Amino acid sequence: QVQLVESGGGLVQPGASLRLSCVVSGGTFSSFVMGWFRQSPEKEREFVGSISRNGEKIGYAESVKGRFAISRDDAKNTVYLQMNSLKPEDTAVYYCAAYETVTINYYARRGSEYDYWGQGTQVTVSS
Question: Which one of 4, 43, 104, 120 has the fewest CB atoms closer than 10 angstroms to its CB?
Answer without folding.
Answer: 43
